[in-house]
């Protein structure tokens, strides 16, 4: 379960204090913030805390207290940049309305020298609250992922939002609001490509969406059908077919090639035939794809800061694994992940050691649901799979002495060997879910397009290559040395010289080599939960016009 740390106020730039402001606007700001101001010091955590969710209301209160409650939005250029920045949030899949863009715009337009101090003070605090809240959403996401997934443990050690918000206030005081908005989102290519894809999908939606493909027969090579013209238009809209080609109703080789490319990128059988499954994918409404990109932009804000240095990342929904060194991919492979009812969890850990020639202890759930039925059907099942039966003290016993209808107090352990369920090697990263990367005898399953076939662990197609790269020692642990270790047949654990971070992440978009985004099936149904949370309105800490505060945002 993800650790939940106290919500804290921010550390903001210190300025000389005065006991009581004399400026009427500052006095109105002090009156507005006084109830929160009194709670700031009590909310400060111990300095050993490395990461907390930030209470924006307390951060704003402390910011003003440290500047003697002086107004900060007196420069019209700053407020203009703020409103432009809030309006631009839509390009990141966020909702400008969460930050009272319309109310702030109307209030700014109505401000004059005759505006009462109370209204000017309220506008100033609301603008600051919207500024901080918006930039923190751009940096770390709107939704707290720990509220959606009890296993979430990606909170960034060493990244303190108090320091982040201090930098935001520095930018505000330096009249650098526009740049603060530019620098807040992740600066990686995948994020900018998703923003571009979102804009393109919205343009497509504004033109009425992409054309439906409505065939009267199966569309395949040689078919002549009006629906082939619809198909060509749909493929053009997705970037799979050259728009300069003549539109015609014949299903030719060019269409076959484009359909195969589409199918491959959508994790469909790439046979060039528009089957029922392919047709359903082609006719997914553009709004659904817009929402899918928005969900993955949010995931990017949660996770992209982690993609630095050397690490292994498992793309669960994409059935892929990659090793990055110095932030660049140096190795990739296909994987098999957990079935939907035994899903692979999303979490981070550190790879610490490798097990060569592993044995496999059958987990209780697999024993009950999978192995026991096989034993009852086939008394020779255990021998055929080289599985030993152990009693409560760890001694090997005769399977014939066990009542397999009620096999209490026994453990099943499969002996090491190429046909062991874990194959020849296991890549270990201690975690509370008993999840690891491993070899597999079920290599034929790597040829499937959708590979949610395991009981939760990650089966790797070329695990020995990854092991060699993880050791990163071409003298002691090259490919030949690894084969020598396997040839002993002895189960052996070898520590890595350097621990390597591993991230098990869930994305439902892919970035293709030509920079186009494609879409993955949401194999575990996680997108719907994230989208619901992303669409849920939130209020900033201080509302305009004069309204009761309905809740304090934390980022």
Describe this structure in words.
This protein is of the alpha+beta class and 555 residues long. The protein has 3 domains: 24-185, no CATH class; 193-287 and 514-533, Muramoyl-pentapeptide Carboxypeptidase, domain 1 (Orthogonal Bundle), CATH 1.10.101; 307-510, L,D-transpeptidase catalytic domain-like. The chain is built from 17 helices and 15 strands. The protein has helices at 24-43, 56-66, 76-87, 101-110, 117-140, 161-173, 177-183, 189-206, 226-237, 253-265, 276-282, 286-303, 364-377, 381-384, 463-471, 479-487, 526-535, and strands at 311-315, 320-325, 328-338, 347-356, 360-361, 387-390, 396-397, 411-414, 425-428, 437-438, 452-454, 458-460, 492-505, 509-511, 517-519. The protein has an 8-stranded mixed β-barrel. A hairpin with a 2-residue loop joins strand 2 (320-325) and strand 3 (328-338). The longest helix has 24 residues, at 117-140. It starts with 23 loop residues before the first helix and ends in a 20-residue tail after the last helix.
Salient structural properties:
555 residues; alpha+beta; Muramoyl-pentapeptide Carboxypeptidase, domain 1; L,D-transpeptidase catalytic domain-like; globular; disordered N terminus
């Amino acid at each position: 379960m993800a650790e939940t740390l106290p919500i804290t106020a921010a550390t903001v730039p210190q300025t000389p204090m005065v006991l009581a402001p004399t400026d009427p606007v500052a006095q109105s700001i002090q009156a507005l913030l006084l109830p929160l101001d009194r709670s700031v010091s009590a909310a400060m955590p111990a300095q050993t805390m490395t990461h907390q969710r930030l209470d924006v209301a307390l951060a704003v209160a402390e910011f003003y207290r440290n500047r003697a409650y002086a107004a900060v939005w007196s420069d019209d250029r700053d407020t203009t940049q703020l409103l432009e920045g809030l309006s631009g949030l839509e390009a990141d899949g966020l909702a400008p309305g969460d930050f009272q863009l319309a109310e702030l715009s109307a209030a700014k337009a109505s401000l004059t020298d005759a505006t009462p101090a109370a209204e000017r003070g309220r506008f100033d605090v609301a603008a600051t609250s919207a500024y901080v809240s918006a930039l923190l959403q751009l940096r770390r996401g709107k939704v707290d992922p720990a509220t959606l997934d009890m296993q979430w443990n990606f909170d960034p050690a060493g990244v303190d939002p108090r320091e982040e918000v201090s930098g935001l206030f520095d930018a505000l005081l330096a009249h650098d609001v526009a740049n603060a908005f530019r620098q807040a989102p992740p600066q990686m290519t995948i994020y900018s490509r998703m923003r571009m894809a979102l804009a393109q999908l919205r343009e497509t939606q504004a033109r009425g969406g992409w054309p439906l493909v409505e065939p009267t027969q199966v569309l395949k090579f040689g078919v002549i059908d009006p629906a082939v013209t619809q198909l060509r238009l749909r493929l053009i809209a997705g970037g799979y077919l050259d728009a300069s080609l003549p539109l015609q109703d014949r299903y030719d080789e060019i269409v076959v090639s484009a359909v195969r490319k589409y199918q491959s990128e959508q994790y469909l059988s790439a046979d060039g035939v528009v089957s029922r499954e392919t047709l359903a994918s082609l006719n997914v409404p553009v709004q659904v794809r817009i929402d899918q990109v928005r969900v993955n932009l949010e995931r990017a804000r949660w996770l992209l800061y982690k993609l630095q240095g050397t690490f292994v990342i498992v793309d669960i929904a994409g059935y892929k694994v990659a090793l990055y060194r110095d932030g660049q991919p140096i190795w990739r492979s296909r994987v098999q992940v957990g079935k939907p009812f035994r899903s692979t969890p999303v979490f981070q850990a550190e790879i610490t050691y490798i097990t060569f020639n592993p044995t496999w202890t059958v987990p209780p759930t697999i024993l009950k649901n999978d192995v026991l039925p096989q034993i009852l059907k086939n008394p020779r099942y255990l021998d055929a799979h080289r599985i030993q039966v152990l009693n409560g003290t760890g001694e090997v016993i005769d399977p014939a002495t066990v009542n397999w209808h009620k096999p209490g107090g026994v453990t099943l352990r499969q002996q090491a060997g190429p046909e062991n369920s874990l194959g020849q090697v296991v890549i270990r990263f201690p975690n509370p879910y008993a999840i690891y990367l491993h070899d597999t005898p079920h290599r034929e399953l790597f040829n499937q397009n959708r590979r949610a076939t395991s009981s939760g662990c990650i089966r790797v197609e070329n695990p020995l290559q990854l092991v060699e790269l993880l050791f990163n020692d071409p003298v002691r642990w090259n490919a030949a040395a690894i084969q020598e270790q396997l040839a002993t047949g002895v189960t052996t654990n070898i520590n890595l010289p350097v621990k390597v971070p591993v991230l098990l992440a869930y994305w439902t978009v892919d970035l293709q080599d030509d920079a186009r985004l494609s879409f993955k099936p949401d194999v575990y149904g996680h997108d719907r939960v994230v989208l619901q949370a992303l669409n849920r309105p939130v209020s900033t800490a201080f509302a305009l016009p004069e309204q009761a505060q309905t809740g304090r945002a934390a980022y």
